[in-house]
Task: inverse folding
């Protein structure tokens, strides 16, 4: 098999798995609920009034979960009525890679070393999801906390909790961890068609945009663990 034929096979396999992932990842489900009155004039009921299910080409590779604490203040009565509120609530942030952006031009085949280098699109964190149903009120303080003030405090703490969770999700440390998960996920995805084509011994290297500036892609050999790669590199440097 010539290198050109092999590369074409690898590109076709990669694109095929992208299409498959796009149809299989049915993870975008929009659901709106609205209180309506039943025909018999009874009590209001909650029901789904619209629903949309669509395919997605984004592969979920990681999820960050935890608990976030947020504090907000509200001032009324010409600055004389100040109230503060502190809450805690669980949060989660998913990390995705858009495989629809992965094409044949992002694959580089080295026939001498039987290495396939995949220049993947970068990992993107989704908007943070805070669990309002499980929020815990730690403290509300103020001489007089009006109903309007309480509503404002609730909105502000929710907004701040979401902002803090998203800031944490986008931190360099979390993004680096998400890229490691994404590297493994993409490698597993591409390994399936390679194995089916009888190329299970191919070495896969997955890179992301922040890592490609120096072109030090050899460190991202996903056929070995990152720890083993670093150990081997340290051994070579000593010799």
Result:
């Amino acid at each position: 098999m010539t290198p050109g034929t092999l590369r074409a096979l690898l590109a076709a396999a990669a694109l095929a798995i992208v299409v498959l992932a796009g149809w299989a990842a049915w993870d975008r489900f929009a659901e709106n609920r609205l209180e309506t009155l039943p025909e018999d004039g009874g009590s209001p009921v909650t029901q789904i009034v619209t629903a949309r299910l669509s395919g997605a080409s984004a592969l979920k590779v990681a999820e960050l979960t935890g608990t976030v604490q947020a504090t907000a203040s509200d001032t009324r009565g010409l600055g004389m009525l100040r109230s503060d509120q502190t809450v805690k609530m669980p949060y989660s942030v998913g990390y995705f890679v858009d495989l629809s952006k992965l094409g044949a031009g992002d694959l580089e085949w080295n026939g001498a070393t039987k290495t396939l280098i995949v220049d993947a699109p970068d990992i993107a964190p989704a908007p943070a999801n805070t669990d309002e149903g499980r929020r815990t009120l730690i403290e509300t303080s103020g001489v007089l906390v009006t109903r309007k003030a309480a509503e404002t405090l609730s909105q502000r703490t929710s907004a701040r909790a979401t902002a803090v969770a998203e800031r944490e999700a986008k931190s360099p440390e979390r993004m680096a961890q998400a890229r490691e998960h994404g590297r493994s996920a993409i490698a597993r995805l591409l390994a399936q068609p390679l194995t089916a084509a009888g190329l299970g011994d191919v070495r896969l290297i997955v890179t992301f945009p922040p890592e490609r500036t120096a072109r030090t892609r050899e460190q991202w050999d996903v056929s070995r663990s990152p720890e083993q790669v670093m150990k081997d590199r340290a051994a070579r440097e000593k010799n």
About this structure: The first strand starts at residue 28 and ends at 36. The longest helix spans residues 172-196.
